[in-house]
Specification:
Elements lengths: L1 H26 L15 E7 L6 H9 L8 E8 L5 H7 L3 E5 L4 H10 L5 E6 L3 E2 L3 H7 L6 E10 L8 H17 L11 E4 L12 H11 L3 E12 L5 H21 L8 H15 L1 H14 L5 H18 L3 H23 L13
Parallel strand pairs: 1-2, 1-4, 2-3, 6-8
Antiparallel strand pairs: 4-7, 5-8, 6-7
Helix pairs in contact: 1-6, 1-9, 1-10, 8-12, 10-12, 11-12
């Protein structure tokens, strides 16, 4: 039984991190076609904000400077009961401001969607910056009437403190592009995405849009795509340790969706494989590593391959403890999935959020 558990854990880790990305990359070579909108639709760009006075004016100025007809863009700042000058500064900068009682990002976004009327609604974080043509490129995919959701590419600035999130993020974007060309993406990012108003879904405020909207669109037999030419830029957290704390908070919401969001119901077979491979197994990586290490210890002296496997794991974790960049990043993020699951099971997940350290 221990031998079986060893190979299952090792196989699942290898599949989610190495084999699956290679398989979808090969399959995706045959797919992918671009479309362009013949006429530009009206778009509401919604920025959810909680105490963002240090960046909100810059965010609005960036959106006002986009290469998109100003008369077709409405900029809305939906404030989650900010207690600083966010709302005052946003209004003075020319945005429409909606003040909400403290209820979390998704609740604030829902109200902004309900109180606007454009054909498309786009969303952005307050600390993001969009490339001048980002909105045009994001909107272009909606020329295909089957498309309900489009996510752009987030590019992370170099972290002064050694955070290796940027290395992982480039790997993640390559997988996302392949999935987009196949069954559809399994996750987005809050920095730059858009939804056709008729397809917008109000979800549990604790879920968040990044993980929930793509799979909901596919359940409805609509399309959820990734547009890599629509760029947004953000500052990452400064170190692997600060990224670990951000990931714990993020994974708490991911576990909630995985365990209670009914992600796997009524999904096409190909997309079902994507969800299990890229989301469920990725979030289970920390647990799989714990299991693999435990059975490797139990199988010492039962064969050279188990001895080598244990030595490899010990060497990798020793490198992480010594501060070797990518080893430390991977170890911390994998452990964050375990801590997040414990937090979720112990106390649940709040709908509200706080600014991530060092990202403003």
């Amino acid at each position: 039984m221990l031998v079986a558990v060893f190979w299952i854990a090792l196989g699942l880790l290898a599949w989610t991190h190495v084999v699956y990305p290679l398989v979808v990359a090969v399959l995706a070579r045959r797919g992918g076609s671009s479309t362009e909108a013949r006429t530009l639709p009206r778009v509401t760009v919604i920025v959810a904000a909680y105490n963002e006075e240090t960046v909100i004016e810059r965010r609005i100025a960036n959106l006002q400077a986009l290469d998109y007809p100003a008369e077709l863009v409405e900029i809305v700042v939906t404030s989650d009961a900010s207690s600083d000058r966010t709302e005052e500064l946003a209004a003075a900068a020319g945005a429409r401001v909606i003040r909400n009682p403290r209820g979390g990002k998704v609740a604030a976004q829902d109200r902004a969607v309900r109180e606007t009327e454009s054909e498309l609604v786009a969303f952005s974080d307050a600390n993001a910056t969009w490339a001048p043509d980002a909105l045009r490129r994001l909107v272009a995919a909606f020329a295909d009437p089957r498309v309900a959701y489009v996510c752009g590419q987030l590019r992370l600035e170099a972290a002064a403190g050694g955070n290796k999130e940027g290395v992982y993020w480039r790997y993640e974007m390559a997988v996302r592009l392949a999935e987009s060309r196949l069954g559809g993406i399994t996750g987005g990012n809050g920095s730059i995405y858009a939804v056709r108003r008729s397809d917008y879904a109000e979800v549990d405020p604790r879920f968040g849009h990044d993980l929930s909207l793509p799979y909901l669109m596919i359940q409805r037999r609509r399309r959820a795509l990734y547009e890599p030419s629509a760029y947004a830029f953000e500052k990452p957290t400064p170190s692997n340790e600060t990224e670990y704390r951000r990931k714990v908070r993020m994974f708490e919401h991911c576990w909630l969706i995985v365990l209670r969001g009914k992600m796997l119901r009524r999904q096409p077979l190909g997309y079902l494989v994507e969800l299990v491979s890229h989301r469920h197994l990725r979030y289970a990586s920390g647990l799989l590593h714990v299991v693999l290490l435990a059975v490797s210890l139990a199988l010492v002296t039962h064969g050279w391959i188990y001895d080598v496997a244990l030595a490899g794991q010990v060497a990798f974790f020793a490198a992480a403890a010594a501060g070797v960049g990518i080893a430390r990043y991977y170890t911390l993020v994998s452990w964050a999935t375990v801590v997040a699951l414990w937090n979720y099971l112990r106390r649940g997940v709040p709908a509200t959020w706080e600014v991530a350290e060092g990202t403003r």
